[in-house]
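> call design_seq(struct)
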């Protein structure tokens, strides 16, 4: 499997305010694809985005999403 540019193994996205994405092109607050095993999205406030709050495109692996406000 070619993982160049599509690997987010053990990524941690924690305690963020993600507000108002999409005004200049990238509409999703969090966009993950490819190999994302062990990724954790925890305690984030996501609002006012033009696209999805959390968008997973053909993910491979386990992601834990908890304590979020979308």
């Amino acid at each position: 499997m070619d993982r160049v540019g599509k690997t987010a193994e053990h990524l941690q996205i924690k305690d963020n305010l993600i507000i108002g994405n999409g005004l200049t092109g990238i509409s999703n607050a969090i966009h993950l694809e490819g190999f994302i095993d062990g990724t954790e999205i925890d305690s984030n406030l996501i609002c006012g985005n033009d696209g999805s709050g959390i968008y997973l495109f053909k993910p491979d692996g386990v992601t834990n999403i908890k304590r979020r406000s979308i």
